[in-house]
Amino acid sequence: MVKFLIPYIGKYKKDVVWAVITITIAAVTSLWQPKLLQQVVQAIADDKMNLMIPLGIQLIVVALIGLVAGAINTIFAAKIGTGTAADLRAAEYKKVQTFSFGNIERFSTGSLVVRMTNDVQQVQTIVMVFFQSLLRVPILFIGALVLALTTLPRLWWVILVMVILVVVITMGVLSPMGKLFGKFQNLLDKTNNMAKENLQGVRVVKSFNQEHNEEVRFDANSKELTDINIKIGYLFGILMPAFMLIGELAIAVSIIFVARNIVSDPTMLGALTSFVNYLMQIMNAIVMAGFMSMFAARGIESTKRIKEVMDTKPDLTFDANAAEEKLSGDVEFDHVSFAYPGDEHEVLKDVSFKVKQGEMIGLVGATGSGKSTLAQLIPRLYDPTDGVVEVGHENLKKVNEKSLRKAVAFVQQKAILFSGKISDNLKQGKFDADSADMKHAADMAQAAEFIEKYDDQYEHEVEERSANFSGGQKQRLSIARGVIGNPSVLILDDSTSALDARSEKLVQEALEADLPDTTKFVIAEKISSVIKADRIFVMQDGELIAAGTHRELVASSPVYREIYETQKAQEVID
Ligand SMILES: Nc1ncnc2c1ncn2[C@@H]1O[C@H](COP(=O)(O)OP(=O)(O)OP(=O)(O)O)[C@@H](O)[C@H]1O
């Protein structure tokens, strides 16, 4: 895991060098201070007041150097930590952009977000802590141990007993605490998700009167979080007094064993002072090491999760050598079968058809029959498991990515807009669109009528999750974004479902009149939406079971006839 982070940290070589130098200085000064203190005590005992001032100045200077070195170290450690985290986040984000739908679904979007935010944050903390404590712990531990032993060698056993006790307590308390921290993090994620889901679905919660149930669910989680927090508090509660007790005992025992000699040997007083100081430093070093290993365990877990993202091979890549070209609107499926990644079940089975540029194709069939799946293969959101998909007589596996993106516009079932302005969203369909392009596209999508009512028209804000637009308005904007680039192939996946019949008709007429050369695939629940299509494809259980004009299908396809008759009967009832 550390190997994975080295290239990222390596970018901050200079800062690493400074962090190491400053931390070494800070550690050495804290080892030096007890020695100086020892000399001060000695000078007092010897009544050598003339030594007091230089010694006092030395003590202050050393302490100041330690302080400044520690502060500078924190700055460098923070720089390495935040820099590494920022680079990791950027690299991860870049990597995720190369992912196919399949890659993303395998991780789940929620998990990818956590891996780009929370996990990166954990790595930042561990890198920072590492460069703040790296070297400090071994220098302090070994240095203080050696100095304590050389100061009062007779008391070696006090050191040994204290080290054993501190190690046992540190391990005994920090290991369950680490587990509790892990649980705490998971529960926090769960609580956050719950709050997010509740707020996003606030309309459903309110309309189904679910506030109470939601509160109960939230409270249960919250209580669990509180319990864990209390347990962590208990452990901390034990830890600190336990260390203090060990420290005080060690000091008391040392005093008892040395006191007798102080009368005969006054140098013992100074030695005892510095010995006690070193004892405390040894204890600090062990506790610091314990906390570091706890942080490290969490940091390593997060690094693993980030590494998983970075090591994933995008399962759909475009040929970088393919030349950019203008693709025509001819679309061909040649014996295409498809199963979603990680799923055995075939959702498309041996589908073949040829569509000519400018044709309008209606796609109908029962829910789950594979209409959206078929549509998603045209902009190559997935590769077929078997068979070949061609746009403009080019196999999509060999086509240039930009050419395909320009050629195929896919207006999805669920209209998704991005926060920003209306114009920003339309420009996603054509990055250099001018106001005339926007007006033309909005006219086609019957969106101009509501956009132009705003004072700021195309500069009107789109709020987060496009909350300030109705379902129908979102669909119109999403269609406008689809048509603005004058694509060779336009796919409307149930994109007019929230439009009234009149608007839907107007959109279709506008598309017919203004985009005559664009091939159109229109997925629709209602046959009335595609009745005028040049051909209608009928899907059933992933198979293309019939194709033809409305008239032909009514005459030849029992499945189509049944759908049509049912919908007609429904219209009469309505
Ligand atoms: N991302 C996915 N992962 C796994 N299975 C999926 C995924 N998306 C769809 N499916 C499955 O594929 C089948 C076809 O779904 P598809 O969305 O293509 O149907 P559809 O005809 O467009 O349905 P609808 O009219 O309800 O939109 C369904 O059984 C569905 O459960």
Describe what this molecule looks like in 3D.
- The chain is α/β, with parallel strands linked by helices and 574 residues long.
- It folds into 2 domains: 2-311, ABC transporter transmembrane region fold; 331-573, Rossmann fold (3-Layer(aba) Sandwich), CATH 3.40.50.300.
- The protein has 20 helices and 12 strands.
- The strands form 3 sheets. The chain has a 6-stranded mixed beta sheet with strand order 6-9-10-3-11-12, sandwiched between helices. The protein has a 4-stranded antiparallel beta sheet with strand order 2-1-4-5, covered by helices on one side.
- A hairpin with a 6-residue loop joins strand 1 and strand 2 (346-355).
- The model has no long low-confidence stretch (mean pLDDT 88).
Count structural domains: 2
Low-confidence stretches: none
* CATH superfamily descriptor of the largest domain: ABC transporter type 1, transmembrane domain
Anisotropy-based shape: elongated
CATH class division of the largest domain:
Mainly Alpha
Number of E-type strands? 12
Tally of alpha and pi helices: 20
Biggest sheet, spatial arrangement of strands: 6-9-10-3-11-12
Query: What percentage of the residues does DSSP assign to strands (E)?
Result: 5-15%
CATH architecture of the largest domain: Up-down Bundle
What percent of residues adopt helix (DSSP H or I)? 55-70%
- Main sheet? 6 strands, mixed
Quaternary structure type: single chain
Q: Would you tell me the overall average pLDDT?
A: 88
Subcellular location: Cell membrane
Pfam families: ABC_membrane, ABC_tran
Membrane topology: Multi-pass membrane protein
Organism: Weissella viridescens
